[in-house]
């Protein structure tokens, strides 16, 4: 494929930006609430160019010890490394927009280990966030960079924060873009379903069922399944969960083909690894310039999330974009790159004494994290081996120490896995008592109470729990990947009123 010259490419990016910005008021947005349903499952994704093949980028593979990672560069100036979201996304979504930053920065793109064009090599200890941050540091050293600005998008925002805590001397600035807070405290319920219609929800459910039947019959591979799922879901309104403006059909295809590509179970493994880290209070003494960028319509999170993240970075600056969702850089383009340019080109020098104080605070934060009574449960995974271990060490009084819904779920699931349904029911009842003031969390507790009652043969009691959730008319989606179980609260509760829950086995071994 022909590679564009640098001058031609910069002119093209500028033209695309102007065209997109001028036509934003003409583009369909989530507020239009347009419903489009494609009645047939699309089995062939339209051909769409991989943008990396068209850009004047320096491309290389960097050896980080036990595998090689795919890395791209463009521009010159202050080094700026971009960490994409996921877990399991790729760098492709940053193209072509960050070509604008190449005018004043040395922009570095890469695919994380286990994703995209990098090696799928878990290493001797398996995939983890510690490994991911070590890989990033290895890239910095290989590129002979002293310090760089680290920009983390979504889940990449969590990695960026954790990387800075592990390697503070390597960071000249931190940019958190629609970032995952990395906090054990609740940031509120996601709003991802706010603009989805019932027709779109129903069609997405049908698509999931159709594709599961195809993969179950070995008519498509796991890789084909994921690509077709992403493309068809986006086509039928799923874009409204994280985008403000509706992308083009070509963009849908690029997302499916190039932007959600990773090793088997990578997403689950990395989410589990990240869940063991609580960043609460870690940045109180942070002297490294920090910029938080948030879209007003980032429905991935609650409306409170941005303020909770900002409170955990008291010395940071936050900018909120009024007409943007999760990405921002491809929606409020001019403002985004103006703010980024201002930050990158005016970075203040970091006082070494302040940095040493920060290192001491990081060490203290780590000690507090390890000493917390609920830390142990986060060290185990969600698979069957971890369930056995949790059961062996379980004592009822431990429940009093749990401060988060996920901890009750994990210990409840452990008893379910071991077929100890009575104790699991007790745990889910305590779960509801402690967190029932939150409708979504309380509903999850009620559904799992119903499951245990079904398995104990208490059908009428089970139906009573399901009915409470069914009457709420909540469309909040819940996923329990270890059981291959995904459902919307009230529709699923209505199904369970009709038919009892049947046991599902944990698919994760650990």
| Class from secondary-structure proportions | alpha/beta
Strand order of the largest sheet: 1-2-4-3-5-6-7-8
List the domain count as a whole number. Answer: 3
Q: What characterizes the major β-sheet? A: 8 strands, mixed
Radius of gyration: 23 Å
Mean pLDDT: 91
Specify the helix fraction band.
Answer: 40-55%
CATH superfamily of the largest domain: Alpha/Beta hydrolase fold, catalytic domain
Question: SSE order, as H and E?
Answer: HEEEEHEHEHHHHEHEHHHHHHHHEEH
* Shape field: globular
- Percentage of residues in DSSP E strands: 5-15%
Provide an overview of this structure.
There is one protein chain. With 510 residues, this protein is α/β, with parallel strands linked by helices. The protein has 3 domains: 6-34 and 52-189 and 270-362, Rossmann fold (3-Layer(aba) Sandwich); 198-263, no CATH class; 375-498, Alpha Horseshoe (Serine Threonine Protein Phosphatase 5, Tetratricopeptide repeat). The chain contains 17 helices and 10 strands. An 8-stranded mixed sheet has the order 1-2-4-3-5-6-7-8, sandwiched between helices. A two-stranded antiparallel ribbon has the order 9-10. A hairpin with a 4-residue loop joins strand 1 and strand 2. Helix 2 (129-142) crosses helix 3 (155-166), helix 4 packs antiparallel against helix 5 (222-235) and helix 16 packs antiparallel against helix 17 (489-498). The model is unreliable at 1-11 and 17-22 (pLDDT under 50).
């Amino acid at each position: 494929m022909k590679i564009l010259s640098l001058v031609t490419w910069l002119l093209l990016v500028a033209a695309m930006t102007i065209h997109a910005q001028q036509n934003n008021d003409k583009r369909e947005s989530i507020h239009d609430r347009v419903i489009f349903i494609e009645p047939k499952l699309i089995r062939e994704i339209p051909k769409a160019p991989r943008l990396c093949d068209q850009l004047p980028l320096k491309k290389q593979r960097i050896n980080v010890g036990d595998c090689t990672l795919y890395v791209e560069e463009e521009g010159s100036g202050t080094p700026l490394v971009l960490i994409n979201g996921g877990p399991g996304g790729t760098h492709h979504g940053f193209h072509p927009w960050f070509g604008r930053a190449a005018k004043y920065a040395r922009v570095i793109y890469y695919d994380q280990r286990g994703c995209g064009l990098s090696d799928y090599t878990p290493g001797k200890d398996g995939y983890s966030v510690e490994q991911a941050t070590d890989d990033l540091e290895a890239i910095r050293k290989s590129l002979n960079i002293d310090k760089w600005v680290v920009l983390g998008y979504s889940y990449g925002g969590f990695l960026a924060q954790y990387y800075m805590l592990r390697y503070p001397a390597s960071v000249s600035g931190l940019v958190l873009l629609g970032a995952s807070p990395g906090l054990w405290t609740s940031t509120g319920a996601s709003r991802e379903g706010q603009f989805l219609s019932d027709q779109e929800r129903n069609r997405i459910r049908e698509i999931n069922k159709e594709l599961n039947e195809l993969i179950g019959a070995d008519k498509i591979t796991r890789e084909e399944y994921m690509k077709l799922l992403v493309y068809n879901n986006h086509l039928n309104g799923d874009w409204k969960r994280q985008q403000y403006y509706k992308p083009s059909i070509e963009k849908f295809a690029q997302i499916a083909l190039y932007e959600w590509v990773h090793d088997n179970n990578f997403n689950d493994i990395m989410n589990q690894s990240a869940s063991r880290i609580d960043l609460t209070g870690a940045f109180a003494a942070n002297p490294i310039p920090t910029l938080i960028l948030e879209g007003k319509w980032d429905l991935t999170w609650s409306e409170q999330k941005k303020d909770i993240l900002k409170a955990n970075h008291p010395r940071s600056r936050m900018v909120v974009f009024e007409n943007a969702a999760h990405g921002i850089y491809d929606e409020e383009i001019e403002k985004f790159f103006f703010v980024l340019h201002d930050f990158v080109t005016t970075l203040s020098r970091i006082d070494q004494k302040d940095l040493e104080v920060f290192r001491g605070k990081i060490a203290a934060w780590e000690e507090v994290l390890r000493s917390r009574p609920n830390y142990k449960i986060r060290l185990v995974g969600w698979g069957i081996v971890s369930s056995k271990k949790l059961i062996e060490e379980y004592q009822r009084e431990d429940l009093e120490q749990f401060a988060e819904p996920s901890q009750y779920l994990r210990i409840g699931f452990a008893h379910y896995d071991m077929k100890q349904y009575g104790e699991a029911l007790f745990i889910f009842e305590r779960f509801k008592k402690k967190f029932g003031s939150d409708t979504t969390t309380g509903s999850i507790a009620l559904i799992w109470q119903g499951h245990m009652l079904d398995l104990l043969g208490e059908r009428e009691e089970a139906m009573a729990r399901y009915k409470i959730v069914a009457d709420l008319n909540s469309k909040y989606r819940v996923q329990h990947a270890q059981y291959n179980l995904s459902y919307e609260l009230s529709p699923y509760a209505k199904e369970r009123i009709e038919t009892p829950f049947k046991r599902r086995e944990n698919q994760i071994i650990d």
